[in-house]
């Protein structure tokens, strides 16, 4: 049976194998390791509505259209978050909408995607939901929105973007030309052209993490700044001198049985 993977699983494991074990292998619920999700969810849903619901008989939406879409998703946020989110949307409008003669209707918005991926005779089922897939003059551009307060290093493809690349290349072979991250707080776009080198880089990166994840039976904790937001600290031997026992009803640890390629 194929082992299911997602971008969230890969990112969690890369950040801390112990947290991955608690969440996905042992089935422990926890607050998000990445902080409150309300801000990011609201911005993503607003941008989805902006593109999905716009009447493309007209060339460009106005900033008023952004306001209407934003107001539908602010109910769970604090006033400071609402203000910060609106500043990000205004910046997005000024940089990526207002200068255009017209906007193109995307091929897909918040599209669910699924494919298979094999490494060392281990089969993985990979799934995801991309933010936007655009037509360009040269092919397709995959766009992912980021709400992080810092911009990631540009010397390698983002892990989530790379996973979607592996899926979409099976759905649209040779049509995908560009992978882009748009950092909404900073109004900055980072793009990668799809090249054989990037393809190899993505396969090696994700393949390496996936195989380690599937074979892991130690789940060593990785200590870092992410620990400050981790809901598993009381169970973790790296953060607690006397870790609490896992609660009743926790799943049993799985047995690792793999057949690796020669």
Describe how the helices and strands are arranged.
Layout: E1 3-6, H1 7-15, H2 17-25, H3 38-52, H4 63-71, H5 79-96, E2 108-109, E3 112-119, E4 122-129, E5 132-135, E6 140-146, H6 159-171, E7 176-183, E8 188-193, H7 196-215
Parallel strand pairs: 1-4, 6-7
Antiparallel strand pairs: 2-5, 3-4, 5-6, 7-8
Describe the structure.
This protein is of the alpha/beta class and 262 residues long. It has helices at 7-15, 17-25, 38-52, 63-71, 79-96, 159-171, 196-215, and strands spanning 3-6, 108-109, 112-119, 122-129, 132-135, 140-146, 176-183, 188-193. The protein has a 5-stranded mixed beta sheet. Strands 1-4-3 form a 3-stranded mixed beta sheet. A hairpin with a 2-residue loop joins strand 3 and strand 4 (122-129). Helix 1 (7-15) packs across helix 2 and helix 1 (7-15) runs antiparallel to helix 6 (159-171). The chain is globular, with a radius of gyration of 20 Å. The two termini are 20 Å apart. 24% of the residues are buried.
How far apart are the first and last residues' alpha carbons, in Å? 20 Å
Oligomeric nature of the chains: single chain
Largest sheet: 5 strands, mixed
Strand content: 15-25%
User: Helix tally?
Assistant: 7
Mean pLDDT: 89
Instruction: Return Rg in Å.
Output: 20 Å
Q: What are the secondary-structure elements, in order, as H or E?
A: EHHHHHEEEEEHEEH
* Percent range of helical residues: 25-40%
The number of E-state strands comes to 8
Low-confidence stretches: 257-262
Overall structural class, as computed from helix and strand content, comes to: alpha/beta
* Overall shape: globular
